[in-house]
Amino acid sequence: MGTKHTRADDAPDDPNDLLPERSVLSLEEYLEMQAAVGNRTRFEILYRLSHTDELTPTELDSMIDVDDSTLHYHLGKLREVGLVEKRARSERDSDGLYTYYRATILGEVILEHGVEELLRREWDFGDAYDSSAD
């Protein structure tokens, strides 16, 4: 059974109090973002978008093994919570493409300081996770 560790800082009793008085987003909106990126397909879409300038659905489709309707569904969910934005051209480019997606600033931050940070910490603290190392 795990033990509860106390934190050195004074954590508020109410999680809503973690936000500044004039917060841009509500706690629920932040949690919706976290939940959205918790899905494997949406994580991968956001990951790829945050590590490029922008991508078309065709380019994303070639990188991620999902059908077109599934890709668009997950792009819509990511847009809905503000992690991804869509840019539509008024004219086709040389490849005949109109629509581009990119990660928003919030998308990049929640990815970098969320799942990616946890994954990096596992590399840094591998021995701490290894119960056989005594």
Automatic annotation (TrEMBL):
Segments crossing the lipid bilayer: none
User: Which SUPFAM superfamilies does the record associate with it?
Assistant: Winged helix' DNA-binding domain
- Short name of one Pfam family for this protein? HTH_20
Q: Does the keyword Transferase apply?
A: no
- Asked if the Swiss-Prot or TrEMBL record annotates the protein with the keyword Transcription regulation, the reply is yes
Task: Write the record's keywords in alphabetical order, separated by commas.
Answer: DNA-binding, Transcription, Transcription regulation
The protein's matches in InterPro entries, at most eight in alphabetical order, are given as: ArsR-like_HTH, HTH_ArsR_DNA-bd_dom, HTH_MetalResp_TranReg, WH-like_DNA-bd_sf, WH_DNA-bd_sf
One GO molecular function term of this record is: DNA-binding transcription factor activity
Q: Where is the HTH arsR-type domain?
A: 22-117
Supply the name of the protein.
Answer: Winged helix-turn-helix domain-containing protein
Q: Which organism is it from?
A: Natrinema thermotolerans
Classification lineage: Archaea, Methanobacteriati, Methanobacteriota, Stenosarchaea group, Halobacteria
